Amino acid sequence: MSELLDRYAEVAGRDVVNHLYQLVAPLKGMKVVHVNSTKEGGGVAEILRKLVPMMEALGLDVKWEVLEGSPDFYQCTKGFHNAIQGFPVKLSEAMLEAYETVNAENAEKLRPVLEEADFVFIHDPQPAPFLNFCPNRRGKWVWRCHIDCSRPYRPVWKYLKNWIQDYDASIFSLAQFAQFLPHPQYLIAPSIDPLSEKNIDLPEDEIRGVFDQFGLKPDLPFILQVSRFDRFKDPLGVIEAFRQARKMVPLQLVLAGGGATDDPEGEKVLEEVRKAAEDNEDVHVLLLPPDAHRTINALQRASDIVLQKSLKEGFGLTVTEAMWKGKPVIGGDTGGIRLQVIDHFTGFTVRSPEGAALRIRYLLHRMDRLEEMGARARRLVLENFLLTRHLREYLALMIGLLHGLEDRIDMVQ
Amino acid sequence: MAEQAGQDDGKSPLTQPFNIRDCALISMATGYRAQNLREFKEGLLRVPGGSIYHHFWGRFLEPQFDEPEYSNDFAAWVYHRLNEKALAEKLSVIDPTDYEDIESVRQDLVERIEDRLYENEFVPWTRADEQFHFVRSQIVILDTGRYLEIPSDLPSGVPEMTIGSIFYHFIDARKRTEDRSDDFSAWLTGWGDTYNDLRLKLLAVDPFFSSLKELRFTVTKVLEEYFGGGNS
Question: What is the total count of domains within chain B?
């Protein structure tokens, strides 16, 4: 077993890694290419940084290519991103032209690698037109959508669909994100990497260090929400829940989020949050740099309860991260949170600040239940939402694609 | 566990070594969804049989909570999203192994829903973001190249199996074996009545309410108790 896979076996279980070896056997030596728009930053790069070496360790011949764009191109693809999430976005002819030109130029450079690959995974809309520029492709091409696509803005989706429909298959994160397309649509839920800075075990003194670092009181119960300062994450609702719970139990709240300086709406929300928190010394609003993974890890581990009181949510990986650390989560009753927060078992789903306040009080009153739910939460992630499961489904999909659409693919015969 | 065993050793086919298989599942969207009970019934009538199989059994190999209240996704949705507790209970008792084939399961599901629609003065419905999404799946079956030679190899062999192997041999087997049992029980019949007690204990393990890891643990415990107790 490779050293890398050995490390995952220690966390996820040896049987899980053995299963990956079984699965990869019929694919050994095959050429796989992943294409996305950046090697640094963002969830997709984070996943590929681990998925690619793991696929290599299993004996696949894997390449990770990155498309190089212009400012116009990125403006256009940012528009796509927002439109796929349902925001009405107007894209000019010039922006679309930049999008198509950048794709044509990049595809030209990468064509030999792409055309000889057995599998090509194109991540998100940025490189979606690559397929049309590779007429002599011999492998299977899959478009992987990492974005919440449940209610895309129709005019933009119709444009993108033209580039996507000729793929052999697409992958969406949840069934509710799948769109009508003339090819099979696979469903692969997101995952977290247990060995990343954000999720790795930390020494106790580093965890306790956040109390000094952020002026928190070590003897006061600590509730946390980690998220962008975005209305859909309902940070004001979290403060309201805190206020109501605080009437009955002593408590402190941390709202930790990344910088939102390039997002005017984000800045406005942050300002409102700061205003709502200013009269209470036990509400801490932390604006953390994008690479503060270890700090977030420590905050999650130091907290008693994690909230993700979103009004709308794609999957909610911050929920997965908190659960991995054995914390029960009080989450908004929406999107992928429902798949993870099982009411009364791994936490509670709520629809109002009042509901969140009630559950905070309950869990702090019943520490036995808090611990029990936390342990169940960790087990749910261990068995379902680690990177090893993500990789297993990629391998199963690759075998599936080689064998058509039948329900059972018997490789024993 | 032996890596490879000879097949031509004069044993009867039923006492041949047990070939350990493995499997993995990948889910696929069917495009069918339902927001109320009538749409749910229509969806059940239209989806491929594989989707019905998936919501009863395939779900074990995809992200799920290991202490489910109901034994299939249909019952869980009817209860949690439509608040139809009585119907959820009626759907939950359906065990696909009691039916001739998946089409008969489909027919019974639809009939139970139609009965409820007939009784009700309104059609139960839910919010747009709580719709039921019918999913199907592809199962990839693999040969591990490993074998169990004799039944007393089971207590050491089962704990080493992947959850894919547990799914294949303990759950998926119910649709393949003649008596709708698991593969271990079916293999034990090759030894005549010798392992009848063990077969009955394995058949008594209810696979509906636990994760595959827990199922592996439960089956292992049954095997250890049996062989550890000097019955072999």
Answer: 2
Binding-face residues of A in 78-137 toward B, CB within 8 A: none
Contact assignment for A25 to B63 by CB distance below 8 Å: no
Cα–Cα separations (whole angstroms), residue A46 to A49, A82, A187, A293, A322: 5, 20, 19, 12, 18
Residues B188 and B211 in one domain: yes
Quote the domain boundaries for residue B210: 13-19+150-228
Strand duo B18-34 + A185-187: pairing: antiparallel
Query: At residue B156, what are phi and psi to the nearest 5 degrees?
Result: -90, -25
pLDDT of residue A265: 73
Residue B182 and residue B21 in contact, taking contact as beta carbons nearer than 8 Å: no
- Give the sheet arrangement for strand A408-410, strand by strand: A61-66, A31-36, A119-123, A140-144, A169-172, A185-187, B18-34, B132-148, A408-410
Task: For B165, name the nearest residue in chain A, comparing CA atoms only.
Answer: A19
Mean pLDDT score, A290-301: 94
Last residue of a domain, one of B70, B105, B136: B136
CB-based contact, A176 to chain B, within 8 Å: yes
Contact A175 B27 (CB under 8 A): yes
Supply the ipTM of this predicted assembly.
0.88
For A15, name the nearest residue in chain B, comparing CA atoms only: B162
Does the residue B145 lie in any domain?
no
Mark residue A207 as left, alpha or beta (left: phi above 0; alpha: psi -120 to 50; beta: remaining): alpha
> Is residue B3 included in any domain, yes or no?
no
Domains of chain A are: 3-191+386-402 (3.40.50.2000), 204-384 (3.40.50.2000)
B60 vs chain A: nearest CA distance in angstroms? 11
Evaluate whether residue B118 is within a structural domain: yes
Closest to B14 (Cα-Cα) out of B178, B147, B181, B192: B192
| Residues B105 and B156 both lie in one domain | no
B-chain residues near A407 (CB < 8 A): 48, 50, 53, 136-139
Q: Are residues B50 and B127 in the same domain?
A: yes
Chain B residues touching chain A at CB-CB below 8 Å: 21-22, 24-29, 31, 48, 50, 53, 62-67, 129, 131, 133, 135-144, 160-164, 211, 213
Phi, psi dihedral angles at A264 (to 5 degrees): -55, -40
Q: Are residues B101 and B186 in the same domain?
A: no
E strand spans, chain B: 18-34, 132-148
Write out pLDDT tens, residues A224-250: 999 988 888 999 999 999 999 999 999
Report the predicted TM-score, pTM, of the whole model to 2 decimal places: 0.90
B102, pLDDT greater than 50: yes
How far is the CA of A133 from the CAs of A62, A95, A172, B173, in angstroms? 21, 19, 23, 46
Q: Do B221 and B121 lie in a common domain? A: no
**Chain A neighbors of B31, CB-CB under 8 A:** 178, 180, 185
Instruction: Tell me whether residues B138 and A408 touch, CB distance under 8 A.
Output: yes
In a domain, B156, yes or no: yes
Please tell me the distance from the alpha carbon of residue A298 to that of residue B183, in angstroms, as a whole number.
47
In sequence order, what are the residues at sequence separation of 6 or more whose Cβ sits closer than 8 angstroms to the Cβ of residue A27? Answer: A60, A395, A398, A399
Q: Are residues B34 and B115 in the same domain?
A: yes
